[in-house]
Amino acid sequence: MKKNEQKRRQALKKTMSLIFDYGEMAKRSLGKHWNERTAAEKKQFTELFATLLENSYAGKIESYNNEKIVYIKEIHDDDHAEVKSKVVTAKRDEFTLDYRMIKQNGKWMVYDVVIEGISLVSNYRSQFNKIITTRGYGELVKKLQTKSDELKAP
User: Does the N terminus or the C terminus of the chain have fewer Cβ atoms within 10 A?
Assistant: First the structure.
């Protein structure tokens, strides 16, 4: 990655961390396995999960080119909301893009992204549960660490 690309990626990650609640996303992605973790394991998992999301999501954002995001509506109750939108590509293709949010300390934070009806958190939860059930939590951490190292490599 060139120096300007690295700077842009760092700025993008910083902005993402202001709107994405990685702790809540990590907790929901582990599902029933979250409560079995120690405080140190939760911290480590959240950091690995944040790195995974930052890099995969930042890559998608950087690949956007002339797409238009159209706000459709928002649904909310006291401390949960869903912002519904659609993305229209330059070729006029469309897909839905919804953000599920939670209000914490007076600030709305994203805890899930739903693309074409598929929840990012549910998708990860399914994958993580399969790995934990068949090979153990340690194997999941090892896979996330390897992926994190690959994403950080120049």
Answer: C
Beta-carbon contacts of 87 under 8 Å, excluding residues fewer than 6 positions away, are 67, 68, 69, 70, 94, 95, 96, 97
Quick: pLDDT tens for 69-102.
899 999 999 899 999 999 898 888 888 989 999 9
Closest to 12 in 3D by CA, of 60, 47, 45: 60
Give the pTM. Answer: 0.86
**Whole-number Å distance between alpha carbons of 128 and 23:** 16
CB 95 within 8 A of CB 49: no
Higher pLDDT, 61 or 112: 112
